[in-house]
Amino acid sequence: MIDNTQYINAFNAVSFLLGGVLGWILKNLRIKAEIEKLKLESTSKKMDFLDKIQEKRKQFNSDKENLCLIFDECVEAMASKDTLKAIGCRKTMNHFFFHSYWNSFFEYFETKITVKNNIKDKMLIIEDEVLPFLETCQKFLEVTNSNIFVMHLEQNKLAIQYQSIKYLYKFCLYNIKFFNLKLRKKVKTLKNEIVSE
Amino acid sequence: MSDHDFLNSIVNYAERSLKREITEYEREQIIDNFNSSKERTAYLRAIEALDKTFNIKVPKKSNKIILEKTANFDDINNKLEAMKREAAKWEANKNNGRTKSN
């Protein structure tokens, strides 16, 4: 015979089990909702960062275009052998290069490496952004310190300190694999040419 | 990339490879060769045009990257090259002037 106490115990056991299962389901649903929320937050943060990258890239490209216009003016001044205009252009070009173009590149680069920070992305950043920038710096110094400006027009020679490109240089060396000798050599050569100019 | 930018990027690439500015006639030749090419894509037609006009061999594997990149970074580098050429010309002119006055 089953007495009332056994019924109550069975009922309690079933309730306990049901409660456990329900609790587990609720907990899982809550976790799922939390995960969805986190995913959304992370996507929205990523979008914010992407917006920032795009904004910085736009600024950098716009500065690059403006620098190209200044270069055009300099070429014109040099072709017409207009000493005063050429000196003025060189001043504008140097000022713009170091105060706008340089800064906007670093802002763009720093924003980009904050988001794109896996090794594949870093290598792409090195190949597509850093190396072309260093090449431009090297060419720029060659032009602004050419004999015509320094010797004939008696303008001061410009120099870039190692400290200014140290971060870019180290970033390249830390991220380029040790067996990629060609690329490592390219970075070192560019660094030496820029710093010793 | 617009047609104009694309043509500029081909011209930039040619100038970079030849290390000199290309003439208007050469520019027209590139366009002619590009238009007469039977290749499937614009990039392949551009490569053929460069090969036919200047005998420049563009590595096919990197064609897209090269041609796209030239539109961005090589523009600034080409301008710097142009400045370098003008600086050299001006300097040669100054040096000639000095030699004559001596």
What does the model show?
The complex is a heterodimer of chains A (197) and B (102). With 197 residues, chain A is mainly alpha-helical. Chain A has one domain. Helix content of chain A is 87%, strand content 0%. Chain A has six helices and no strands. The radius of gyration of chain A is 31 Å and the shape is elongated. In chain A, 18% of the residues are buried. With 102 residues, chain B is mostly helical. Chain B has four helices and no strands. In chain B, α1 packs across α4 and α2 packs across α3. The longest helix of chain B has 39 residues. The mean pLDDT of chain B is 76.
Q: Could you give the topology of this structure?
A:
The complex is a heterodimer of chains A (197) and B (102).
Chain A: H1 4-79, H2 83-115, H3 119-144, H4 147-152, H5 162-175, H6 181-196
Helix pairs in contact in A: 1-2, 2-3, 3-5, 3-6, 5-6
Chain B: H1 3-18, H2 24-36, H3 42-54, H4 63-101
